[in-house]
Amino acid sequence: MERELRILMIEDVPADAELEVRELKRAGLRVAHRRVETEEAYREALREFRPELILSDFSMPRFDGMSALAIARDLAPELPFIFVSGTIGEEYAIRALKNGATDYVLKNNLVRLPAAVERALEDARQRALRRNIEEAQARLVAILEATPDMVGIADPGQRPVYVNASGRRMLGVGADEDLSATAVSDYYLPAERERISTVAIPAAIRDGVWAGESAFLARDGREVPVSQVIIAHKDVSGNLQYLSTIARDITERKEQQARIERLNRVYAVLSGINTTIVRTRDRQKLFEEACRIAVEHGGFRMAWIGLLEPNGVDVTPVAKAGFDEGYLAQINLTTDRDAPGNCGLTAHALTQAKPVVCNDIASDDRMKAWRAEALKRGYRSAALLPLVPDGRAVGVFVLYAPEPGVFDEQEMKLLVEMADDISFALKHLENEERLNYLAYFDEITGLPNRALFSDRFDQRLGAARHDRQSCSLIMLDLERFRTINETLGRQAGDELLRLLAQRLKEESDETDVLARLGGDCFGIATRRAAAGSDIGAILDQILHRIQAQPFSVGGKELRVAAKAGVAVFPGDGEDVETLYRNAEAALRDAKASGQRYLFYAPQMNARVAEKLSIENKLRKAVEREEFVLHYQPKISLVTKRITGVEALIRWADPEAGLVAPGLFIPVLEETGLILEVGKWVMKQALADLDRWCAAGAEPVRIAVNVSAIQLRQKSFVDDVRNVVAARKDLAASLEMEITESLIMEDIEQNVAKLAAIRELGATVAVDDFGTGYSSLSYIARLPISALKIDQSFVESMTDSPDSMSIVQTIISLAHSLKLNVIAEGVETAEQQKLLGLLRCDEAQGFLFGRPISADPTLELLQKRSKGIAKQ
Fold it and tell me: How far apart are CA 124 and CA 595, in angstroms?
């Protein structure tokens, strides 16, 4: 039934009030009313009764109707106010309406009262609706104006209608400047205008959205590269209503990419030359290959190597590659700066034994004599690297680049390293020590390798036995090194290893032996603890030094951490191999337990045995199907009804009872059992859903989490296909939750897999969104239906403006891409309220319900028509 309408009646005649109520009820209205006669009672009723409508007599002995109207308009301006009087005349009626009365009805014509009431209520509802719409529009505009990205809207004729503040700054136009007379294409670089007009916008109109990179041309002539999404908005008939765009300035990223590309070329040169150094024992071939590699792999315009003659003055080019065209033949190559026709840069590099850089040949006075010839050949900058094998320059390696300003600090650091490597090769090329070096030293870091380390460590053990003192073996392993290699490239990984080796050298004592044992594992043999130092304090200092300061790699600052395992002679072993084995065991235990470092102890063997026991129990659990699913509800923040559930696995161990997933999922993943268990989860979830539907519950989305091990399998799509094949009618209810970082590991393959999943009828949601790194262009390409905001942002959004901004941006992004948004980890009513105001679609968390087993979930779903109650 409809709810009761609260009416406040200002009437001194009870019978008249009863007649008015009776007339309203005859018209089918349910009425709860309160009658007052005095101003005091009237004011109290406004506060406590909170009426939705006021009916007032015009003239009363104790209180005047116009006074009541004035009070109402002061305290509740939007509250409908109708005069019901037998004495009001036309003049007073007009006056009352001018003062804010909604309507008036004569007591001798109460048949008009129900219609007047309904009309007044409807007018009030419409005013409230318009006010809410205006407020929502104002909030939306405020959000758009605050976002750091461009947000723009254009009409179907591709003329700008709205551009936010960030966009106007990006285009260099004034805040109040009218853009409607211009075209969208006017704001792009000339080379981009045709592509945007003929490719991007038609693609957006055809497909609904276009994402890609482009470049704006600002009013001041700046070129602004952007990552852009263009979205076409159509009416129900498919007619274009307007175009919207979100564009992010990627100038810094582009510059960084160009810098990284240059550094990668230098890395390629360094790697290629080092490979040549390893493979050749012929000096001339080394020089020729170094020049060739610099030009072909480094992108340099020309490279040459010159050696000092025995007289220490003349310089003779011995190798060159690239575009010379007689350039070197015109120069008097000498260390004598006063010699006519000489090149002062070459002389300075050789006499000072220091690198020389000319980053702009067109303006550098040191190149004045050779500027025209250099520019004619496309040389724009140059670096001269002395070859110094024994503290004295014996030659110079000269590189010419086709663009100015390329020889920055990082690039020069690598080039100097390259020159040092060539210098080292010159020193040892004809010496057997060179072969010994390659056999016993690590090529990347220059540290002893495992073979040399074992020999030197054995010597330290011999001394320790003789002195009856201890000796410690520390094994260090970097965390997330594989991720760095995969995201930044192996060259960046090698650079990180070199920087780490240098930092470890600085932390090592002169008596320590430091080595790279392989991969990202380093070894330190130390006797410092025997001299009274605390080995734990030494470890703390080393690990803190690694983690406290970032490493600058490829233009990025990387903070890395390391784990360590320690074995101590003689308690943990009396020979190299035993100590190796035990230190590795301690390191594995440290990585598994999350400890920064651990010492080896016999108890570790017991923990290994315990882990094997758990693994065996899990294998039996898989065979016996000892796993159960619990379900946590998701609710709509608009309707407050259940929209779906997330399936969460538990292990019903006959001995230990119900085991939380954090205690056994890692073991399932390590052993590969997660593949079989993952398929069981999908089958069981659909089976439970089928049983719920058979019991009368309405179908809901049922989400299952996908492990990284599952998604990486080539058979993943086939596994899902086999599961849904038996329950095709429920396939649309199955939702795969996959973490953002996992999807981005191999974006191309994963997009194909997810698209295949969508074709089977299932949907895909991105879990923990916001914790990884996803470009807008990739998100737009993903065949997904929903984004789940990571609970860390939801948890802190009420206290942290940054988290609130992230949540707001994710919701806005998702809605612009027509994706559903789910907030996870909602635990407070305040969080729920904020998410509702931000127009988040759904939420899940302890506020709405903890995970429960299948039968209680069925009872909950059967009650869903009545809304949600907290568990």
Answer: 65
Place of tokens 């809410």: 132
pLDDT on residue 468: 84
Collapsing DSSP states into helix, strand and coil, what is residue 358?
A: strand
Cβ burial, residue 277 (10 Å; 0-12/13-18/19+): buried
At 123 the pLDDT is 92
State how far the Cα of 862 lies from the Cα of 853, in Å rounded to an integer.
15
Q: Is the peptide bond before 156 cis (omega within 30 degrees of 0)?
A: no
pLDDT at site 822 = 95
3-state SS, residue 346: helix
Could you report the per-residue pLDDT of 110-144, keeping only the tens digit for each? 999 999 999 999 998 998 888 888 887 778 878 88
Q: Which position has the token pair 């551009």?
A: 163
Q: Assign 442 to helix, strand or coil.
A: coil
Q: Are the C-beta atoms of 736 and 782 separated by less than 8 Å?
A: no
- How many Cα atoms are found within 13 Å in the side-chain-facing hemisphere of 653? 15
Q: Give the per-residue pLDDT at 436.
A: 53
pLDDT score, position 591: 85
The secondary structure of 121-168, three-state, reads: HHHHHHHHHHHHHHHHHHHHHHHHHHCCCEEEEECCCCCEEEECHHHH
- For residue 413, give Cα distances in angstroms to 270, 355, 389, 739: 11, 10, 17, 39
Between CA 779 and CA 783 the distance in angstroms is: 9
pLDDT on residue 90 = 74
Q: Are 855 and 630 in contact (CB under 8 A)?
A: no
Beta bridge partners of 195: none
Element (H, E) at 653: strand 642-653
Report the alpha-carbon distance of residue 854 to residue 627 in Å, rounded.
Answer: 13
Please report the pLDDT score of residue 540 as a whole number.
80
Q: How far apart are CA 122 and CA 116, in angstroms?
A: 10
Distance of CA 397 to the CA centre of its chain: 43
385 Cβ contact partners less than 8 Å away, ≥ 6 residues apart: 349, 355, 396, 397, 398, 399, 415, 416, 418, 419
- If DSSP codes are grouped into helix, strand and coil, which group holds residue 306? strand
Task: Report residues of the chain scoring pLDDT below 50.
Answer: 1, 432-434, 531-533, 604-605, 608, 865, 867-871
User: On the CB side of 253, how many CA atoms lie within 13 Å of its CA?
Assistant: 9
H helix count then E strand count, the chain: 31, 31
List the beta bridge partners of residue 764. Answer: 736
3-state secondary structure at position 667: helix
Q: What integer pLDDT is reported at residue 748 of this predicted model?
A: 83
Query: pLDDT tens, 561-592?
Result: 889 999 988 888 889 999 999 999 989 988 88
What is the DSSP pairing of strand 209-217 with strand 223-234? antiparallel
Pairing of strands 842-844, 820-824: parallel
| CA-based max dimension of the chain | 129
Query: If DSSP codes are grouped into helix, strand and coil, which group holds residue 813?
Result: helix
Is the four-CA dihedral 59, 62, 66, 72 of positive or negative sign?
Answer: negative
| Backbone Cα Rg of the chain | 39
pLDDT of residue 633: 94
How many CB atoms within 10 Å of residue 200? Answer: 20
Question: Residues 44, 3: contact at Cβ < 8 Å?
Answer: no
Q: What is the predicted pLDDT for the residue at 776?
A: 60
Q: What angle do CA 663, 668, 670 make, to 5 degrees?
A: 105
Reading across the β-sheet that carries 356-358, which strands appear in turn? 315-322, 302-308, 395-401, 381-387, 356-358
What pLDDT is stored for residue 94 in this prediction? 85
pLDDT digits (tens, 9 = 90+) for 821-834: 999 999 999 999 99
Percent above pLDDT 90 for the chain: 31
Alpha carbon separation from 679 to 648, 739, 758 (Å, rounded)? 13, 18, 17
- Report which of 221, 117, 124 is spatially closest to residue 171, judged by C-alpha positions: 221
Distance between CA atoms of residues 522 and 482, nearest Å: 15
